[in-house]
Fold Rubredoxin-NAD(+) reductase.
Amino acid sequence: MNITQYECQACGWIYPPQSDNQSKQVAQFTELTDSFSCPLCGVGKSEFRPVNEANQQGESDAESAQSNRQQIIIIGAGLAGWSVVDAIRALNKEVAITLIAADNADRYHKPMLSAAFSQKKSAKDLIRFTGEEAANKADITLLANSKVLAIDSDNRKVLLDNAELSYDKLVMAIGAAPAIPPSIDAQNVWHINNIGSFNDIEQALSNSSTPKHIAIIGAGMVGTEVAEDLTKAGHKVSLLDMNKAPLALMLPEVASSKIKQAIIDQGINFIGNSRVDSVSSLPDGGYQVAVTDCGDSSQQTVEVDHILVSTGLKVEETLPQSAKLDFNRLCGISVQEATLQSSDPDIYAIGDCMSISGAPCRYVAPLRAQASTIAEHLLVHLEQHPAQADQAYEHKAYVHKPPMIRLKNKSISVSATGTPTADEQYGKWQVVSDTETEVGQELVLQQVAADGTVVATATVKSANK
C-alpha cells in the first residue's frame, strides 16, 4: 500500500517515519483520529501537511513578487531561523535573505535529540538537508560557520569578523545556550542543545565498545527524557537534581513522585534534593562528582565516565546588548507580542532567544506562527508583501498561547497545557480523577487560580508493572 507522508509544520517530524513507511500496519494519515498529535512537539493533526506541499505553496505568487531586493538578515540557523526563511519564501520568492549561522546550518529535527541514542541514530541520520542544500532550495545567501561580533543598530549593520553587512530588517534567532552551574568546568561536560553538541557525545559513546556510566545534572524535561533514552541505549545513568523529584518545579508532588518512581523502575539512579559542589577528573579517565544533600548536608561522591548538563538555558548577551535591545539574559530579548518586534522596530526576535511579557518562549510548537507573523510584518514594511495590492489587507497579530508540554518518556506519559508550575501561589493543584485503566493508572490534575480560572492541566499515565 502506498502511504502518503505528512510533515509536522511545527517541528518537521514526518508521519509515518521512514522506518515504518513500508509496514502494512501503518494507517493513512487521513484515517487517524482527530485527537492525533505530533509525538515530538505535541501540535494537533491540523498542523500537518503532505510532504512537498509546503514546497509548492506560494509559487503562484512568485510572478507578482516585486523585484526590489531589500536585505533581510537572519542570525541563527536553527529551527527558528529556518522557519522564518520558509515563512518569507512562502510569500515572496525574490526578496534578498542572508542567513548567518555559527555552524553548518543543517536542517534537522531538534526534538529528536533527546530520543536518538536508543534508536542508534547519529547526527547525520537526523539531518534532513545540509545547510547548502537548504539554502539553494530557498534561494538565499548562506554564511555558514560565521561569527557575528556585534550589531550596529544605529546604522543597521551586522559586523562579522571578516565582513560588514547592511540590513533593512534583522531577525534574531540566536537561540539560548546551556546555563552551566558555576561549580562545573564547561570543558568537563556535554550538553545536547544542538546537533553539533549531540554529535560530540554520540561520537564519544559510539567509539566505545562498553556501556558507560553517565551523570545527567538537571531533571527537567530534557534531562529526564535523555536519562531514559541513554538507559534504553544500554548505559548506566545517574540523574541528579536539587529538587526531590523530576519536573518538581512544574508539577505538584503527587505527579512528580510518580515520574520519579517510573524512572527508578527503569534502572536510573535518581539522586534528588542534591547539589553538585564540584567535578574533578580521575587519573584513569572519567570524573568524580561531589554531591551535597540540600537537606541534611551529607556528602557523597559519584564516579562516572561522562557528565551531561541539562540545568536550563540562558541567552548570550553580546549581540542583544550591542544592538541596545531590551534584554534579560535569563528570559531573552523582549518583544511585542503582536509583531515580535524588539525595542528596535527594525529588529525581530523568535524562539528560545526571545521573551513576551517577561516570560521566555522556549517551545517548538509556536515557531511556525511566530515565523509567519514576522514574515508578514517585515514584508509589509518593506512593501514586498504580495497581498498589499489588496487594500483590505490587515496584519494578523500574533497571540501567544502556551503549547501542550509533553514528556517523551516511554515509562510514563506526561502532558500538560497552560502554564503549569508547582508554586501554588499561582493556583492550587486539584485532582480531577485518578483511575485505573487496562494498561495502568491515569492521573488528571488541574491548577486553579484564586478567581477560579483553570491556569493549567496535567495528565500523568503510568503503565502497569
Observations:
- Confidence is low (pLDDT under 50) at residues 54-68.
- The first helix runs from residue 53 to 56.
- The chain has four domains: 6-50, 57-176+315-389, 181-309, 409-463.
